[in-house]
Amino acid sequence: MAGQDGTVLLIVDMVNRFDFPGGAPLARNAWRIAPALAALRARFDEARAPVVYVNDNFTHWLGEFRDLVAQCVDAGGTPARIAGLLQPGPEHYYILKPKHSAFLATALPVLLAKLGVRRVVVTGIAADSCVLATAQDANMREYEVWVPADCVAAQTVPRRQRALALLRASQGASTTPSTQVAGLFPG
């Protein structure tokens, strides 16, 4: 079940090989947010609130999430460091997605309903793509949305800042950094 307040942590696309055009700068920025994200995940684990890893399947329709984790570890470098720091535990959920939004053509809506979720915390990469699409879809489904600014990255800082500004202005999402929020969701 969801934490006492119906909150879930979504970790979007952080298990990643970064082997695509623009992947190198995104990997650097993803590594910069990984410690804050690991600390936020630890807070959810301590509260026994659900954590859901939502990751691209990179059009590998026969693969499993654990295969992607293993590929990142085997790749070495930043993919391995991030996968090591954010290694999913047996208590964590995972969903593979075919496109940008964690909600599009996935089981996420069913899982969130079963968990009794009312609030989603959207973290990961890229702030101006998959995080943005997921947060917008969560808002359209009438979830309260928090996108902690210190737990999302993009290829560049300006792209991250523009996405966060758009979420605040058009979706009413909180972007308060995780270090400034004591609980699982801003008060």
Summarize the structure.
The protein is 42% helix and 16% strand. The protein contains 6 helices and 6 strands, in the order βαβααβαβαββα. It has helices at residues 23-46, 65-75, 77-85, 108-115, 130-140, 157-171, and strands at residues 7-12, 51-56, 93-97, 119-125, 144-146, 152-153.
Give an account of the 3D structure.
- The protein is of the alpha/beta class.
- Helix content is 42%, strand content 16%.
- The protein is built from 6 helices and 6 strands, in the order E-H-E-H-H-E-H-E-H-E-E-H.
- Strands 1, 2, 3, 4, 5 and 6 form a 6-stranded parallel β-sheet that branches.
- The chain is globular.
- It starts with 6 loop residues before the first strand and ends in a 16-residue tail after the last helix.
- The mean pLDDT is 94.
Tell me the layout of helices and strands.
Elements: E1 7-12, H1 23-46, E2 51-56, H2 65-75, H3 77-85, E3 93-97, H4 108-115, E4 119-125, H5 130-140, E5 144-146, E6 152-153, H6 157-171
Parallel strand pairs: 1-2, 1-4, 2-3, 4-5, 4-6
Helix pairs in contact: 1-3, 2-3, 5-6
Question: Keywords, please?
Answer:
alpha/beta; six-stranded parallel sheet; 42% helix; 187 residues; 16% strand; 6 helices
Largest sheet: 6 strands, parallel
- Rg of Cα set: 15 Å
Structural class designation: alpha/beta
Distance between the amino and carboxyl termini: 21 Å
Measured by DSSP, the beta-strand proportion falls in 15-25%
Give the uncertain stretches in residue-range form. none
Count of helix runs:
6
Counting DSSP E segments of at least 2 residues, the number of strands comes to: 6
Mean of residue pLDDT values: 94
Q: Which outline best applies?
A: globular
The SSE order reads EHEHHEHEHEEH
Range of helix content: 40-55%
